[in-house]
């Protein structure tokens, strides 16, 4: 009697374990199903655009991007669309503009932030806390009207001989105010290089460098510039890289501000504006636009994939 | 003593580039821009070197009589509907990818790719998806939700255009908030979860009664960030519906600022600044409300 009872209990236990196991398995399957669904949502636009950009539009005659599921799987692959974008739609100039603007912005942001972060982290001087507070305050300032005043400031700066150089086309009676800003790359770059975010991120990183190292350098007679250049910057390379990548992604992708700042200086416009202009054209060719969109996406994708961990950690550090 | 002065001088020299740039391009525009809201100032006056003319609250009165601005304001408020959807989805996805299972790093990276996509690229892709013959309608027809006769262009319909833009905002945003929530989740100690499990809580109860309350700071931060982003939305609107959509159905408040200041032939800096100021005040007001609600919630908990 008791043996059978025992067995019943044992069986029940086994069944409970099996039930828990299968429930866990079911849970895992459900999680993956959910994640795959989200994955499709996240990457589908890219895959479709990629497929369109490589489709040989001359092969089948009158192919439409809207032939589903045909357009999702091109039968004839070609790079002709990419070549066409460069030769006919002249994407090379906007691409170069994007490169220059991004380079100026990244280098400028790193220099300005590193210089400002050092005294805020490791020097004792009157007004330090007030200045740090003011810099942090820029993170929450309501800047809805900043782009209006900034264009006016930039236009005034064009009169300064040092910065100068306004190569916008001459205003006419039809469009008397065509040129916003300086009409140079600096119109886009200057207002964006000093950020509370960049200074804060590097300051946090400088704070973690041991004080003994700084004291030793000072006893050896190192100047503050040398300490910054030889100790602080090399030791905070992860933070510098994260800030650099973050700035690069933002600048490369920026649309509204460059559009405002370069109004009237069309020859300096970056890729983001050029790609959208293609889309707005009356007789647009979707295959070429797709190629343009892919060209714009690839550099950022490479940067992101190669520095993914650093990039996400940089973001994390910025929020804490 | 002399040494101290020297240090201070060096410190200020190092800080100078950042301080000058911030003063010129951040502090000054916020202050001067707020003042411009109370003036009459058109591009012609600026070009002639004239000073703005103070006119008190006239711009604000005019704005609240301008149907286009009111419509923009209403659309901006409508846009806040994205916040709960975005936050719930991002939190759910963060919980799912936070497990120690194979391929999670891959999913996380893939979900983040839309975040680093420029609005230009996103606009090109989504424009095709939303077309009458586009993939969205194709999928909906495949699922028998709509039939081929009732297919329509999502951005060309005054009732759906703004929701289509929100979908793009959702797509570009959920990976960002997912990463923030993952940071918050990693701060929840594993023992707490285990203790709840041993006490017989179901996974759902554990999540709702244990994890969510501990995530309160992250939840507040993320919902604040996305509320601000919603009330200030501009990229999606300008890129996908340059004119403000059918019957101005996607025309948002910040787009009004943008158009008044830089579209047409007589840029109106005064009106644009006044409209910007209204958006800023609404943004600040919303953040105060959210802080209050959060504190009350904390007191009750």
UniProtKB/TrEMBL annotation, chain A:
Membrane topology category: Multi-pass membrane protein
Q: What is its main location?
A: membrane
Which Pfam families does the UniProt entry name for this protein? Answer: BPD_transp_1 (PF00528)
Which ranges does the record mark as transmembrane?
Answer: 29-48, 95-118, 130-149, 185-206, 227-249, 287-307
Q: Which InterPro entries match?
A: MetI-like (IPR000515), MetI-like_sf (IPR035906)
Give the UniProt subcellular location, in the record's own words: Cell membrane
Q: Which CDD domains match?
A: TM_PBP2
For the ABC transmembrane type-1 domain, which residue ranges apply?
95-307
Q: Which GO terms describe its biological process?
A: transmembrane transport
Q: Which SUPFAM superfamilies match?
A: MetI-like
Key words of the record: Cell membrane, Membrane, Transmembrane, Transmembrane helix, Transport
Q: One cellular component GO annotation, for this chain's record?
A: plasma membrane
PANTHER family xref list: ABC TRANSPORTER PERMEASE PROTEIN MG189-RELATED-RELATED (PTHR43744), SN-GLYCEROL-3-PHOSPHATE TRANSPORT SYSTEM PERMEASE PROTEIN UGPE (PTHR43744:SF8)
- Family named by the database record: Belongs to the binding-protein-dependent transport system permease family.
What name has this protein been given in UniProt? Sugar ABC transporter permease
From TrEMBL, chain B:
GO CC term, one of those recorded: plasma membrane
User: Which subcellular locations apply to this protein?
Assistant: Cell membrane
Chain coiled-coil ranges: none
Q: Where is the ABC transmembrane type-1 domain?
A: 74-290
Q: How does it sit in the membrane?
A: Multi-pass membrane protein
Which residues span the membrane? 9-31, 77-97, 109-129, 162-184, 237-258, 270-291
Does the keyword Transmembrane belong to this entry? yes
At the top level, the lineage of the source is Bacteria
Q: Does the keyword Electron transport apply?
A: no
Q: What CDD domains does this protein map onto?
A: TM_PBP2 (cd06261)
InterPro entries per the UniProt record, alphabetical: ABC_transporter_permease, MetI-like, MetI-like_sf
Q: Which GO terms describe its biological process?
A: transmembrane transport
Keywords in alphabetical order? Cell membrane, Membrane, Transmembrane, Transmembrane helix, Transport
Q: Which family does it belong to?
A: Belongs to the binding-protein-dependent transport system permease family.
What is the protein name given in its UniProt record? Sugar ABC transporter permease
Classification from the root reads: Bacteria, Thermotogati, Deinococcota, Deinococci, Deinococcales
